[in-house]
Design brief:
The structure is a homodimer of 188-residue chains.
Chain A: E1 2-3, H1 6-18, E2 25-30, E3 35-37, E4 45-51, E5 54-59, E6 65-71, E7 76-77, H2 79-84, E8 91-94, E9 98-104, H3 105-114, H4 116-142, H5 145-159, H6 165-172, H7 176-185
Parallel strand pairs in A: 1-6
Antiparallel strand pairs in A: 2-9, 3-8, 4-7, 4-9, 5-6, 5-8
Chain A binds a DNA duplex (30 and 30 nucleotides) through residues 144-146, 165, 174-178, 180-182, 184.
Chain lengths: 188, 188
DNA sequence: TTGCGTTCGGGACAAATGTCCTTTCTCTTT
DNA sequence: AAAGAGAAAGGACATTTGTCCCGAACGCAA
């Protein structure tokens, strides 16, 4: 649910401190509620989260939202779009105040081509996201809201993340009305 | 829906023909209906499809099935499990007769650590799968079966793949009864 | 040709979820 | 303190989907 990545953060911080040209990686801040990346727009930077939490979500044409993941410290953003050379797949929005390392695209491209360390970090991240996204897609399609909610609440208590009801509903792909109904039936 | 990857196939075929030790990559065949990989079991090889089509699916504890993707020529199998060192996430089953290149795990691991070309091929594949899986998860959660079926039929006609009703239902994460109902209403 | 078993499609009803609207609660402004 | 606006929860009804079971069609063997 909430993903973090300490080794990726260390790797980028080491690059940040040792870079000769100081513009390849800069620090940026976003306040809660701000969009870091906008769906269907070309990303200008690849970013890695230094602190804070973001949600990564689709807005569909019927105006409904689906949260794919919550991304925290050490998680990378915008890298899929760079590798596939496409506009942003999803929106990324800060749900707390967030600080990131913003990495220039030509610099990041060059690293992907040449750094095995970066490649291996990215492969691990991608593998993790495929596992998480596909297994949750399967589960939420084949079980009722009650089962999915139980799983989410269990994860949530382990990770100590505070989510609004609207965000919980968007993560499960349902309406807030349905979420309230199921929570009431389960006496939550 | 059906994924293929010509450049990955060329890369593996070049390795296959030039390998000194002939056991690192071997060819294997599977008849229609056979399982190439079994969910929750440790994979013994990483495989790349030379010809044929497979389905990659979850079997949930409530005995329902969800097809994540159909994988064809040039697509790689079992690599996620190797990178994350986990048992198989899904089942992989041949829906036509299938031939694969089976790659020894220590050999493949060594290539991942050392070959930038392989890393870049894998990054592209993973990026594609994340895009596909997450966007379809969102769509199928937020729209009705009718919309999802329309999308599938459109893809299917472009790709000339023949699917059983049971497989279509499993790809959409619904029952065959529901699929029949919607197909009848749409006069298909 | 007939009988049996399996597969497929659909009827009927139940369950799950969405939509729309109302009521209550909370917060802010006057 | 009161009023107004916005947010949150839930009632009622509609729609969508799942479950169960039955009948028809098909294939195979005797």
């Amino acid at each position: 649910m909430l993903r973090t990545n300490e080794s990726f953060l260390q790797y980028i911080e080491q690059l940040y401190h040792s870079q000769p040209r100081k513009e390849d990686i800069i620090e940026r801040s976003f306040t809660k509620g701000k969009k870091l990346l906008v769906q269907n727009e070309k990303p200008s930077k690849v970013m890695l989260i230094k602190s804070g939490i973001t949600k990564c979500f689709f807005t569909e044409e019927n105006d409904k939202a689906f949260i794919v993941e919550f991304l925290g410290k050490g998680e990378i953003l915008g890298e899929i779009e760079l590798i596939r050379n496409i506009p942003c797949l999803c929106n990324i929005e800060a749900i707390t105040d967030v600080e990131v390392y913003a990495i220039a695209i030509p610099y990041f491209s060059e690293l992907v081509r040449s750094s095995l360390e970066l490649n291996n970090l990215l492969l691990s991240v991608f593998a993790e996201r495929i596992v998480n996204t596909s297994s949750r897609a399967s589960y939420q399609q084949l079980y009722t809201i009650e089962n999915s909610l139980s799983k989410l609440l269990e994860l949530q208590s382990k990770q100590e993340i505070e989510l609004s009801k609207e965000d919980i509903a968007a993560y499960l792909g349902i309406t807030v009305r349905s979420l309230n109904r199921v929570m009431k039936e389960k006496h939550i």
